[in-house]
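Morning!

This is the sequence you dropped in the shared folder:
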Amino acid sequence: MTLLRHTIQVRPMEASVLSILPGTFLLHIPPLIALFERLAPRYAKAPRYSGAYKASVDMRTLIAWLTQQVASGSWIVDWDESQEDLISFYASESIFARQFASFSCPACEMEFSSLECAITEWELSEGNETRNGRRLICPSGHTVYAATEQMCIDFVHAEPKIDEENMAPFRAALMATDDTLTSGAGADGKILRLETIDFKQSWIVDCDKYLADPDRSAEDRAKALRRREAFLPVLERPLLHGVVSYNNSIFRVLVDKASNQVILCEIE
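The structure's back. C-alpha cells below.
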C-alpha cells in the first residue's frame, strides 16, 4: 500500500489554544481518497463564488494526484508542496482512526507506530466560547496533532444583534437562491446574527490591498476578488448582514435590502 509522507500543519484555531509540535505522518492514501470523494460533491453544491465551491475543485485535483501516486506503485511518496494543502485541514478523520503507518515527533526525533500514540480529548472555555476536540500525543507526551471538533458560543449571554423585523425577508432571500445548501439555511438554519449595515468605498480599497499584496495566498486574493465584485453594485446602500448555522456549517450572508437578493454567501 502506498503511503503519503506529510507534515500536518497546525491550523490557527488549534495553535491559539494548544502547544502543538507538527508531526510528520505516513498516511494511508486510499482512506484519504475516499474522504475527499465523499466531501467534494457536498461542497460542489455551494455557490460558485464561495470558498466551499473552490474547495470542491481543489479536492478533485487532489483526488487525481493521490490516485496517480497509488498507480505509481511507490512505497512512500512525499507531499507535493504545489498542491493546495487540504490534507492538513481535513486530516482529523484519518488520524483519529489511526489510518497511518507511523508518525515522527520533532521533539523526540523518533518515529512511532500508529499504535504507540495516545488520542485524548481537550476542552477550553474562554468568555462565552467553548472549544473541544481531540489530540494525538506521542509516548513522551508531546502533542503532534490536534483538531477542534466542536465550538459553542453562548449567544444568549453574548447579546447577539438580531433584527427581528428583517428576519422574514432575510430568510426569503436565502430560500430564493438556486443553491440547495443556501436555500436550506434560509428555511431551517438558526440565525445567530442579523443586522443592517452600509458598505463604504473603504471596503473596496481593502479588497484592492489584498489583491495587490504578493504575500497573500491565492485563496485570500480570490476571496477578496469575490467580495469586491459583490460590493461594487451596492456601495452606500443598506445591506442585511446575517450569520446562520445550518448543516454543521456557518453561513455569512449579505442581502441587498433594496432588491432582497443575496449578493454574497461564504460558507465555513
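Headline: The mean pLDDT is 85.

More detail when I'm at my desk.
O.
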